[in-house]
Amino acid sequence: MERFDLVIIGSGPGGYVCAIRAAQLGLKTALVEQFSALGGTCLNVGCIPSKALLHVAAVMDEAAHFAGLGVEYGAPKVDIDKLRAHKNKVVGKLTGGLGSMAKMRKVTVVRGYGSFVGPNHLEVELTSGDAQDKTGQKQVIRFASAIIAAGSAAVRLPFVPDDPRVVDSTGALTLPAVPKKMLVIGGGIIGLEMATVYAALGVRVSVVELTPGLMPGCDRDLVRPLEKRIAEHRLARKSSSLGWLFARAPKVEPIKGLYIFGDVGRGKSMLMDLFFEGAPALRKRRAHFHEFMADVHERVFVFRQKIKAGDIVDEDPMKLTAAALAEEAWLLCFDEFHVTDIADAMILGRLFKSLFERDVVVVATSNAAPDRLYWDGLNRQLFEPFIALLKEKLDVVGLVSAKDYRLDKLAGRQLYFSPADETARAELDAHWQRLAGHHPTGRAEVECNGRIIAVPKAAPGIARFSFFDLCGQPLGAADYLAIARAYPTLIIDHIPVLTPDRRNEARRLITLIDTLYDRGTCLIVSADAEPDALYPKGDGADLFERTASRLMEMRSEAYLTCSTGQRQSD
Q: Do 482 and 455 meet the contact criterion of CB atoms below 8 Å apart?
């Protein structure tokens, strides 16, 4: 068993360079390669043979192009055997040179497939012939260090039948025959190379690509000029050898998105669940809208820092952010699309314009119609062009139903818990889980007349506050109305028994309950006493009698049924 200082698996551009350099440094080096010649996938069946054929295709197309300049050549005649020989000659020159260099540097070349059988042992299944046939013999190499520089291999799609007419990119480069028609599955770089070569040989080529654009994974700003050139110039002239490849295709209208709005509990989230689960798009993303916007602001900040540091060209960070988002997902699904933050409102137009330019499809659910988004927000006139863009790119559908199906979960259940002990807290927790379901929860904000009201815990259509959050702060009727509009169901923890010295909190509680009652808000609370004992005496205690009465009514099933109708007609 021969021992080596270094063994390298793969003799492609990474492997052979490493092997030759290691030998120069005095290391005893072995290089394992499956092909009969060094160079790995790239030189033997990849980049080099494809570029040799692409050069021929480019010359043929350039010659055809000169017809428009007054210089016309006859139709090309292709000798497939000579073309194959040309390709093999180009490959042979390069791989032969590598073999000579390896021999000169005393690099030991072992032909076969290597697999590790121990921390310092490599077993090689030896191969022979041009087809990398296994001989059945094995050789074990002992080494001190190892480098894996294996190249790529074509993957067979599971749904493709076992048929001699189906070849991978390696098989296509051997030019076994020139068919009349060819289907290329995949519009990536390798697929387009094969399509270009065979189209130049007179084959009618069709390219199928799952994603919205060619060469997925590449920078869309770099790919777009190619797509634009194909769309504008088409290269579909009869004199062009590439005419069939880039011939005019039927115009495909952009896919419109969908905006579903309606009151809470009407089934919007269920529809989104069904749609997202069944959507065949591979690159898709579903997010709560506020979570998505937080991600956007973070990306914009990072791009601005990179521009400031000179790491990237001075560009619009919003376009860079949109490009990154579009690269990750061409289908964006948003739950609870609503805008309350002025920072979000001011950038949405630019962001979504860039997303739509990149063929991103948006599907969203919301409690508000597009025209009601960012209602009464600061500088709303600057937000209105985004509403117009949204209505242009998305079909708007109102989900109308007189019934709030979410409130079915509260039917027959207790909504007022006294005293406000651990048992009551556990009951409120159970109501929260029942109503919030699988939706993400967290802190949120509600804007009212330019002021921001903190929401300690929120989910779509439901929010949870402590008594102090709502009545221990300087809030008024407008603030409570803004909260009720944003959240049709509220949970309030621990309403205390109020003494005369807490008259301000009592007055706010009166205003809060009046607002929620008039709005038809579903209310779930825990309190230290029954409603009529919460503020027995003090300034305004007589007014609190109405509040106590309303609290009693708001925990009834009749109120729940009636409140649904109130919100529906609002």
A: no
Identify how many contiguous H helices and E strands the chain contains and give both numbers: 18, 18
Q: Which residues of 450-474 are buried (b: 16+ CB within 10 A; e: fewer)?
A: eeebebebbbbbbbbbebebbbeee
Q: Which of 237, 14, 2 is nearest to 143 (CA)?
A: 2
Residue 415 shares a structural domain with residue 518: yes
Same domain, 378 and 419: no
Kindly state whether residue 161 falls inside one of the protein's structural domains: no
**Is residue 160 in some structural domain?**
no
| Secondary structure (3-state) at 267 | coil
Q: 204-222: b or e for each residue (b if 16 or more CB lie within 10 Å)?
A: ebebebebbbbbbeeebee
In this predicted structure, what is the pLDDT of residue 163? 85
**Looking at the structure, do residues 25 and 141 belong to the same domain, yes or no?**
yes
User: Within a domain: residue 297?
Assistant: yes
Q: Residue 303's closest CA among 325, 292, 318?
A: 318
Share of the chain above pLDDT 90, in %: 34
Q: Are residues 554 and 419 in the same domain?
A: yes
Q: In this predicted structure, what is the pLDDT of residue 384?
A: 92
Q: Which H/E stretch holds residue 481?
A: helix 477-486
Task: Give residue 124's domain range.
Answer: 3-148
pTM above 0.70, yes or no: no
